[in-house]
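Hello forum,

I keep getting stuck at the same step: I have a sequence, I want structure tokens, and every attempt I make locally crashes halfway through. Rather than fight my setup again tonight, could one of you with a working pipeline run this one for me? It's a single chain of 292 residues.
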Amino acid sequence: MFDTLFFNLLLNGLAHGMLIFLIASGLSLIFGLMRVVNFTHGSFFMFGAYVGRSIYLATDSFVLAILGGLLFGFVCGGLVERIAIRPFFGNRVQLLLLTLGMMLVMNELVKIIWGPTILRFPRPDYLIGSFMLGDIILPYYRMFIVGFGLVVLVIVYLFLNKTRLGITIRAGVENPEMVQSFGINIKQVFTFTFALGVSLASVGGAISGPFLSVYPEIAMDNILVAIIAVVVGGIGSFGGSVAGSLLIGLINSFGGFYLPQAAMAFNVVLMALVLLVRPQGLFGRGGVTGGR
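Reply #2:
Ran it on my machine without issues. Output:
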């Protein structure tokens, strides 16, 4: 009985941690490169859930729903960076207020388009149910979320470490002036990084719908834990966003089961302890490689 409960809570925590990772990784990359705290990240996670649901209901294709959420985030992220973020680049206070205001507007916009009530996002038939591993019940959809998150993790890691653009982004996190001195258009790198980060959040929203349901407050619920995960892991660190997200997911799962009233408090306590011991986070300062 204990083993069954433990593994179910573990799997639930890993699944939630992977969803947090999809928000936190992009949030960390954007801040590491552009020094922008993008509060709209949670809203794009929310929009990804709504857009993915709409595409799934229209096409009956979960693959198209995922691709639609990804494309929606990438296009909208690029447009937001070019139109709204770039004119204020370098002014952190104005950008903080701007992204906070955009988050509030986007949260109200989904209520106008889809309504304020919780909407059900049906699961595709092939992801309904579970299978047995000994005495342990493993739900298909939670396994899918964990597997999807791992695939994204590997793809982003390889992109950052094995491609020219990815290495440029990593270098830009460390020293954007140096990157620009090599004749690289740093503004284009900023736009791509912002779009990439937003697309990760948006596709995370698309796959979260059948797991968490779809509702306007999903933005605020997840941006707070994502920010905590980024701070715990280390701002600008891709590996840190992975570690921080999984830690927060596991704390939410086990803490939410045994002491649900204090689940959020556990996250804050973890962040405080990490900052006291290691102010730069678990993975150092600003590295985006998997090992920093």
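The longest helix spans residues 2-34. If your local run keeps crashing, start a new thread with the error log.
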